Each structure stands twice: as C-alpha cells, then as structure tokens.
Amino acid sequence: CLLHRHGATRAGAAPIPADDPELIAASREVRGHALTLSLLGRYLRLAHGGDIRQRDQVDFAKANEATGGHAFRVVAAYEHWLAAGGEQGARCLSALRLLGLFDRPASAGALSALRTAPPIRGLTEPLFERPKGMLGRFKRRTDPIAETDWRITLSQLAEAGLIEPPGDSGALDAHPLVREHLAESLKTRDPDAWREGHRRLYAWLKGCVPHRPDGLDGLQPLYQAVAHGCLAGLRQETFDEVYDDRILRGTGNDGFYSWRKLGAFGANLGAVTCFFAEPWRRPAPELSEPDQAWLLNETAIQLRALGRLAEALEPMRAGAELYVRQEEWQYAARVYSNLSELQLSLGRVAEAVADARHAVEHADRSGDAFLRMVSRTTLADALHQQGETREALDAFAEAERLQAEWQPQYPLLYSLPGFKYGDLLLAGAEQAAWLGADDAGTGVDPDRVGVCDAVARRAGQMLEVAERHLGLLNIALDHLTLARCALYADRLQGRPPGPETRELSEHALDRLRAARDQMYIPRGLLTRAWLRHALGMPDAARADLDEAQRIAARGGMALHLADCALTRARLFQDRAALAEARRLIEKHGYGRRLPELEDAEATAATWPQPNP
C-alpha cells in the first residue's frame, strides 16, 4: 500500500501492516489516487507520527477526484502545518509556493530572479534574512538567506514528497497537481504577489536571450515570457514587445519568423492562447481592437496548420468581420483570403469562392498591390477546385500581370500563389498521366509532356526565390511541384519513375513534414503513393494513402479525403473507394475532379470483379 510505504504505519501507538483495514479504507476514500496516497502517507509521518487515524485532519469531503481535489486537500494540510512551523516552516512554505508560478520545472535562473531583492510582499519575505537588532522586525529584509539554508529548505520539501529532489542543475519541479493547487491558492490568497511574481519572471525571461534569438530552442524563453507577462496583467505590452516584435519578428512580408521559417505552430498557438479571455472566441479586452481582430486570424492560422480546421473557422470569420466593421480593408482582404483557403480545405467549395470574391473586393478597396494580386490567386484556386477552369485561368493571368507590375524583377507568381497556378497548369497533364497508367497503349502526348517541362521550369525559378527569401512551406511546395512534373512526365511516356523523380518526391515530403503544416502533407503523400505503386511497391503506397487519409479525416479535410478515395480506387482497382470518391466529389461540389472521376469509372468496367 502506498500509504504504508510512505509513512502511515501506525494506528495510535500500535504498528499496523500494509493490508490494515484503516489503510484500505483511506485508499478507498481517495479512489486510490496515487499522488494523494503518497503525499498523505508522508504528511501523516511528518505531522502525526504516521498515525493513519489522523487522516481526518485532511478534509476530503468536498474534494473532486476528477480535478485532483483529493491531492489538493493534502497539499493544503501541508501548508497549514508548515505555516505553524516557525521560521523554517515559513521558509519551506515560501519556497513551495514559488512553484505555483510555473507550469514546468523551475530553472535555477528563474528561481534566482524570484529570490532577488526586494522581497515580493506576501510571497518571498521568509526567504530573506531578518535584519538584526532591536528594531530588526521593523526594517525591510534585503539579504537573501544563505545557499546552505536554501538547500536545507529544499531538502525538507523533497523529504515531504512535495517537490522532486533537486538535481545538479538547480531546477525544481513538483507534480502538476501540486503546482496547480499552489497556483490557485496564491492567486486567490494574494493576487498582488501572484502578479508581481509573474512580472519578475517575465522581466527575467525577456532579458536572458538576445533580442531576436534564432531557432525554436532560442525562442523558448520568449514563449515562456508571453505566458508570465499575460499572467502579470501586461497583455498589451507582452503582445507588442515580445510576441509581435521578437517571436514573429514583425508581421510584414518578411515577418512571422516563428511559423514561416520554423514551422512552430504548436508553440505559437500556446502563446496566442494567453491573449484570450475565452479561447478562441473572445480576445482579452486589454488588447486594442485592431490587435483583437488580428489575434483571431493569427490563432486560426495556427489551428489550421495543426490540422484543427473546424476550430479555426469561427475565429477566422470573426476576425474578418471585425476588420470590415473597422474598415481595415488591407487586413480584411488578407483574412478573407485565408478564410477562403480554409473553407476550401473543409470542402465548402461554394463558400470558398464567395469568400475569395470578398477578398478581391476588399483588396481593391485597399489599393494594396500585393493584396490585389494574392486575392485573385485565392479566387482562381477556388474556381479551379469548383471546376470553373476558364475563369480560373483568367484570374491567374490577371494576378500574374499584377505581380509583374508590383515586382518587375519577379514577373512570375511564386510562393503559395505560384504553387496554386502550377497546380492548375498541370491539371490536364495529371488527368492524362492517370490514363497513361490505366491504359499502357495510350500514346505519348508531347503537348502534355511539354506542359510538365514548362511548369518545372517555373517551379525551378520559384524555388530559387523561396530558398533566398521565403519559409519552409514555400520551399516544400516548390519541391512538390517539381516532383509532380517529373512523375506525370514519366507516366505520360510510359516509363517507371526514375531516380530523379523519386528523389524529388522524397525531398518534397521531407520538407512538408519539416514545415509542419498539416494541410499540405497529404498532397505529398498522395504523390508518393502514386510513385511507389508505379515502382511496384503496393504496400508502401497503401501506407502513404492510409497516412494521408488519417491526417485528412482528423482535420475534416474533405477535398483531401476525396483525393484519397479516388487515388486508392485507381491504384488498387477498389470499387468501394471509387463509390466513396463520387459521393464526396458530388457532396462538396469538387468539380475539378469530375473528369478524372469519369475516366476512372470508365476504366473500372475493365477491372476484375471482386470475389463473392
């Protein structure tokens, strides 16, 4: 029994065995919660000589085991016991309460910042020496206790099981339930001390790294600073000085460092959560109205990249509508463009077209050359997926004209707009390549092969720009375009994918994974599945299809699910998958795939009948 092992070994003066009914009853009272039993056993040993009958000193009656309430009651009992333990008890209690300021192990540097003079009233005063002399009690404490006394204090807390034994690094940790109780207790008991403690940590974390540190590891202290700054009540300052300026490195075309360059969507989502009063619905009122609207869109981008598309929809639409009310046309154009892409991924094709038209309207009102270009590529892509090929080509051509006017040194669409245009330009070659795979007798179409070569040249130029100026996702998508061009050309010419095609496909998928944007990884997997099947690797092709389908299903990515079904049907002559592809394509208005679906259904007439 955990109670017996950790010190509850007596009932009054009498020793008891590990299977004593009192111990079993105590275990049942807390539903066998391991942390609670461990803490309770130690508490009874230290405070009551191990007497199990004294467990009634801990009030479990109102505890909620689902939220760690039983453990909270034991920690509260420890707090009362330490508070009555004189000067050393006060030191232990003060050191323990510091951990309520952390959601992770407390580093030695962070603890040192909290133990630096002046003391935090109501929190760290016992960790400072009392001034000597007759009037010492009336003077402020300014000198921290000696390191020896600090280590003794920590060893006593570790003996009680309240903290983990300190390691060589000087970091301290406690069970998450212990930290949770300490945090709630401090916040309720002394909110001023709570805020000042977090302010100290915010200031220390901001100052312990270069202004704009490199890499995800370098950014970690700044992510922590965001959390502590918000808890200190400094949300606007933290938003401006830490998140915007130092983590994102600004929000212009060369900004958004943490997620464009590093793919740090999860870390960013954790940071932006701190700026909400109610995630992801209500930004904190301390933020300015423009920042609130921006925050809604930024949060939606992180959610979308993490594959949480349905969750992203509400904050993104709320942000778009707020910008329109504020007549911030540039921002409204950006967010409606993002919203259209999100709607498209969810299979809401008609809604995606409508939102893209709003993006074009707002971009034109703003007069911003970049936004006028990019909003038209968003509209063109939505029209392409809807099956409106002619209108999509016209919109892309108009966008490329605007691109050449805006940046004459880069006359071709690049980045995500360039990838979308390449996807449309390759659509005919893709359809013909599938026919070539289905029918070995199909002759080579030099025009289609020429399209593959032309798009590959465009992608090569785009890749040069991406590698010099853009982020991981842009580089990955250019590699994917090159891989598709090579694969389609191979299939059109009736040959298996060569080494270059295989290498391009692997590079594309590796870079898509590195970019960590779940919306795009299925595209790379579907391309590689086709390639692997063409190389006589059906099991590997199935594995790629299965992974793509898992990602798409988890994120509600309806168009990817349709592509998975259609690809599975064609590669494995799967009639059930073909029927599912038709259902999804018709349900979501995915007109782009209708010609390919009809080709597959015509070819399916030659597939062998399944065994009864």
UniProtKB/TrEMBL annotation:
Pfam families xrefs: TPR_12 (PF13424)
SMART domains noted in UniProt: TPR
PANTHER family: HTH-TYPE TRANSCRIPTIONAL REGULATOR RV0890C-RELATED, REGULATOR-RELATED
Protein name in the entry: WD repeat-containing protein
